[in-house]
Design goal:
Blueprint lengths: L1 E2 L18 E9 L2 E5 L5 E6 L11 E7 L2 E7 L5 E5 L4 E6 L3 E7 L6 H14 L2 E7 L4 H10 L1 H5 L3 E4 L9 H7 L3 E5 L6 H8 L3 H11 L10 E5 L7 E4 L21 H4 L19 H7 L5 H14 L6
Length: 315
């Protein structure tokens, strides 16, 4: 089944005997079905060949038309893959990313552990994170939220103020999105859908079309979708479902400090090479905490995560 961008109908094409696999980009995913876009811009509903072939939005693949839909034969090697994992399952977010945009809002307030977990996942996957704080038009709530982000700015993370609803203060963000594949992460209510509809032409119509084509009905939040930002198809936003938790069970507790820049920078000062940074004498991180070089809140996030991941679930 295939469509051109902007067409609402999807049509079947039968394969030609002996046809060679074609190159494509996965631009939407829902369950075992996905949409593959060809270099010419045609979009085809496909499913992976075999249960072990896990496909993510952003994958470069080779596929073949078979009966009434396409079949993905293989995935080309990935540059990276961002995913989250809880005790029961793994949720693949996207592959081959240039960066991840973590979108927060002045209101409603976000749990800081969610921001910390998303940043740790980006660090572990070697994907550059970018934080944007929405609703800069709400002066008092925004000032409080901006102050909460001071430790992250001090760590060197890029944090941008924006106002998606009014369209103000957007120039710095749009400049960072040009020519890059960017996954948007964030809790519900942060303004992800509004941002995508503002920056990606035809995104609302495309969401509805994909929802019908993939059989997801009105549950568009369960579908990860790639939206081109320009006619030349050089920059893209990838929308993922909002989350209330961000599982990190694929990360070893002893890796955590290395993925938290403000904490990990003191690990080299520890007396013991296998220090957990929780109770050992001569721990450089505990010394930095005592000297107020590390915020108590950030250290609590570290220690809580270490204990959780070390409780038989982290590797």
């Amino acid at each position: 089944m295939e469509t051109s961008p902007g067409n609402s109908a999807l049509h079947a094409k039968r394969s030609t005997p002996g046809a060679q696999p074609q190159a494509g980009l996965v631009v939407a995913s829902h369950g075992r079905h996905c949409v593959v876009e060809t270099p010419q811009g045609r979009q085809v509903i496909c499913h992976p060949r075999g249960k072990k072939l896990g496909v993510a939005v952003g994958d470069r693949v080779f596929w073949q038309v078979s009966a009434d839909e396409g079949v993905i034969e293989r995935i080309t090697p990935r540059r990276n893959l961002l995913y989250r994992q809880d005790a029961l399952r793994t949720k693949t977010l996207a592959a081959n990313l240039d960066q991840a945009l973590i979108l927060l809002a002045a209101e409603p307030a976000w749990p800081e552990h969610l921001l910390a977990r998303a940043l740790i996942a980006c660090e572990a996957a070697h994907i550059a994170p970018l934080v944007a704080l929405n609703k800069s038009d709400l002066a008092a709530p925004f000032a409080r939220a901006w102050e909460r982000l001071a430790p992250y700015r001090a760590m060197g993370y890029a944090v941008l103020p924006i106002a998606v609803k009014t369209g103000d203060a957007m120039a710095a963000l749009t400049a960072r999105l040009q020519g890059r594949a960017t996954l948007i992460l964030g809790p519900s209510g942060a303004g992800k859908s509004t941002l995508i509809n503002l920056l990606a032409p035809g995104a609302a119509a495309r969401t509805s079309e994909l929802s019908r084509a993939l059989g997801s009905g009105k549950q568009t939040t369960t579908t990860t979708t790639w939206y081109w930002l320009d006619a030349a198809r050089t920059g893209a936003l990838i929308d993922s479902p909002g989350f209330q938790e961000f599982g990190l069970h694929h990360i070893s507790p002893r890796q955590l400090a290395a993925f938290m820049p403000d904490i990990g920078q003191y690990a080299a000062q520890c007396r013991f090479h296998n220090c957990t940074h929780l109770h050992e004498p001569g721990c450089g991180i505990i010394a930095a905490l005592t000297g107020n070089a590390i915020s108590a809140n950030r250290y609590k996030i570290y220690s809580d995560l270490f204990r959780q991941l070390g409780d038989g679930r982290g590797r």
